[in-house]
Amino acid sequence: MGILHLSVELALDLIALISGIILIIRAKDNYPQLYWGVIAVGIGFMFSWENIGWLTIVTDTPEYDFTELLNIDKMLKWYALANIVALFPIASLSPGYFNHFRIFTFLLPPIITITVGICYLYFNGNITAIHSLNEIMPNIGNMDVKLRISIFLLSVITPLFILIYVTSRVKTHRKMNRNMYLFMGFLFLFLGIYILFTLSINEFIFNLFGITAIVFTVLFSMLYLRYENPFSDHISMVYNTEEENPEEMRNSFQPLTLFTTIESYLKKEHPYTDQKYNIKDLAEALNDKERNISDAIKSQGFTGFREYINYIRLEHFKQLIAQNPKKNVKELMFACGFSSRATFYRNFSERYGISPSKFIEYQQSK
């Protein structure tokens, strides 16, 4: 483990840490972005601390037992993080899906397993040394070996189940994009490395595990800094009363009614043309709580207020083009409430698959 490798990894650790802090500050009601920021800060800080320690040692072979299999500490750390990260595809496709109860339900198996593992370590602590796969079966009767095998199997199966659950959900009002497939591909790659890391530890796999984790964190932190929801694209809301069960219809009625009120107000008053317009202003105008406003917006498949208000501004831009054919893009952009040219062009191109200038040319040629 050379100085150059450690220095590169430490630099990535610091990038993850800083980007995570920025995400936390700017997240607002975009909870996936907020949680990803917390994860990035945690991973960046933890890896920075470890790599600074390795840099002070500066040896080719760290003082680390690279031959110990089924290390319970590392499996518990992985299990906690892997299940949380595996929730992001669901949160991306269905922004209003998660509540405290559903999050707790998904995380209950790892919570129980991690609690059992920690209790065993602190109240028993007897760990059988296993240095190769051939040593597992002769020691299978030992309690700690059974526990470690169980934790290992659960730490592989549970994240996989959560990911598969994403594809089995029928009702979603967003569609996966290439970043989602990249994200899921990274998770499967990371899962494979984790299995090797747990069953066949050596220095190369140890380094591969660390660098993959930090590259994964930095890459998607950058995407979250650029996009409100980097893993899926919003599509029109579609209600199918034949597929809706009565309980779900009752739960969705109040947010839907409020969203209708929100949309009517915005289309009538156009307050979003103010570049500083925020969810607090909207809540005060409608005499409602910010949380209720946010939930209503998410019930329509939007990640949060910021994504929704940019969508409204884009729709307003299209109207202004028809009404003011001689005005340029910059004038119309500011008239809609956008304050950043880069944000406007990125949102417009992603939403309609064409640049604003090309769109105007197309409209004028009709």
UniProtKB/TrEMBL annotation:
Pfam families: HTH_18 (PF12833). One of its GO terms (molecular function) is sequence-specific DNA binding. InterPro entries: Homeodomain-like_sf (IPR009057), HTH_AraC (IPR018060). This is Helix-turn-helix transcriptional regulator. The chain crosses the membrane at residues 6-27, 34-58, 78-98, 103-123, 147-168, 180-199, 205-225. It comes from the Bacteria. Keywords: DNA-binding, Membrane, Transcription, Transcription regulation, Transmembrane, Transmembrane helix.
